[in-house]
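WARN retry 2 of 3 for item q-0093 after timeout on previous attempt; input resubmitted unchanged.
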Amino acid sequence: MPGTGQWIAFALVSLGMVLTPGPNMIYLISRSICQGPRAGLISLGGVGVGFFIYMSMAAFGITALMMAVPYAYDALRFGGALYLLWLAWQAVRPGGRSPFQVKDLPVDPPIKLFLMGLMTNLLNPKAAMLYLSLLPQFIDPERGHLLAQSFTLGLTQIIVSLSVNACVALAAGSIAAFMGGRPLWMLIQRYLMGTVLASLALRMATEARR
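OK item q-0093 returned
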C-alpha cells in the first residue's frame, strides 16, 4: 500500500487535476445546464466507468513496465512533468476557454447520456496521461505490491473526481450565472490553476529518483 504522505499528495494532485477545465468538465457542465442536473449525473456515471477502465489498464501496464525496465520511472516522471506544464499553459494562455462558457446540447435519453459520458472520458487525453504519467510518481517500489498501490491510488483519483464533478453538475447553473457576470473570477481561476500545475511539474521534474 502507498505511504500516507504519498496517498495524501496524490489526492491533492487529483483534486487539482479535476478542477482544471477539460473535456469531461466542459461536457458535464453543458449537459447539466442544458438538460438538468440529473442528466449531468447520468453522464458522470459513464465518465466514472471510463476512469475505471483506464485505471485498470494502467495499473497492470505500469506494474509490468516498472518491473521490466529500470529507468521506466524516470521516463514517466519527466513525461508527467511535461504534461503538467502543458496543462498549465492551457490554463493561462490568451484566449483560454472557461468550462462555464456553455455549449448547447440536444436533449438525449439516459442510455445515450451514459454512453456519451463514457466516450468523452475514453477519448480524453487528459485521463490517459493522468494514469500513464502521473500515477507512477506516487508508487514506491520499496513498499512492494505495485499493483495494490496502483489500484489504491487509482480508486482515490476516481472518488475525488466523481465527488467534485457531482457537485459541479448539481450546481452548474448557479456557478455559470455567477462566473458569467464576473470575468475577473474566471481569470483568477485560470491563473491559480496554472500556477499550481506548474509548481507540481517543477516538483516532479526535480524529485530525486526513488
